[in-house]
Amino acid sequence: MTLPQKPAHRPSNARFSSGPCAKRPGWSPEALGGAFLGRSHRAKEGKARLKLAITKTRALLGLPDGFHVGIMPGSDTGAFEGALWSLLGARGVDVLAWESFGKGWVTDIVKQLRLPDVRVHEADYGVLPDLSLVDFSRDVVFTWNGTTSGVRVPDGRWIADDREGLTLIDATSAIFAQPIDWAKADVVTYSWQKVLGGEGAHGMLILSPRAVARLESHVPAWPMPKLFRLTKKGKLDAAIFEGETINTPSMLALEDYLDALDWAESVGGLRGLMARADRNAQVLFDWIAGADWVANLAADAATRSNTSVCLKIVDADVMALPVADQAAFVKGIVSRLEAEGVALDIGSYRDAPAGLRIWTGATVETADLEALTPWLDWAFAAGKAAL
User: Fold this and answer.
1) Which of 335, 337, 331 is nearest to 376 (CA)?
2) CATH number, domain 33-265
3) Which fold does the domain 269-386 belong to in CATH?
4) Quick one: 306 exposed, middle or buried, by C-beta within 10 A (0-12, 13-18, 19+)?
5) Per-residue pLDDT tens over the stretch 277-300
């Protein structure tokens, strides 16, 4: 058995995880030296730092007037579930699922909230459900970018301008990388740990005026956990959206998020971030086009993610193996790359088909992806040689 020769160059940063994601280039713990620690987050200075994060987020995203931004506990999951628990129940719901997290929202809506009027639009990994079947007289719940399938909605044109219901959008792996049409968005959530490479535990909740109107006119039929309570005496709890968080935040993680926002501004703001993600993803797309053993899991080029690029093995010899052996083959690729210090945490999500998932968001350097692709070919060839 002749093993293939290893490539000459390694990525400078082997962190290609899809969450938590790579820190911004040049990051070090010293960047957090000014963190407001050992004090109450309700102190004047603490509230000012929290409000600054909200203000900078609003500016970076270019949010329309009337939109509210709040910091929520529990990462993107906490932010999105807070919205589901607070807003749903006034209308029927259409929920879309084509990967793990979308299916998780189906579970929340159907099995936990037990809403009586729910239509589920599902699709297999790699494709979108039929978007033309969505009824916008109802509330509509979906992920903008399916992190575990690498499939995103192509744009917001399929969302009705004259919708009667709300759109509730999990955008954690899309925000700051893909353009979101704010006229079509009523609720948008994300976590600090994804596209800007921040730390876990906190999520961001963005509400449109239509969402606020729903909050103030609709009382859910179920008990509301304290961590999800967005109203007070029937009105929006405005303090949450001024930096007075529902529970105690990590001021160290907050300082890290502020550092990430500063970096984002330094690389050209939102346009710069999206351009970096596009360039990064294109490195993998170009490599895939010339490889005969791998393909993009997303079948339609218009729906291919520019942040969480998911790959499937298409080599005939590997595909002829039993399913368990195919999975073992992919694990072998992942293990070889990790042992070489070339790529960390790039195996597919546990619920997804066996394959690779490589983060190409803005905090990843294009040169590192260019250095990675020969190693992907090497790891595959090494696995084939061992069959």
Assistant:
1) 337
2) 3.40.640.10
3) Aspartate Aminotransferase, domain 1 (3.90.1150)
4) buried
5) 999 999 999 999 999 999 999 999
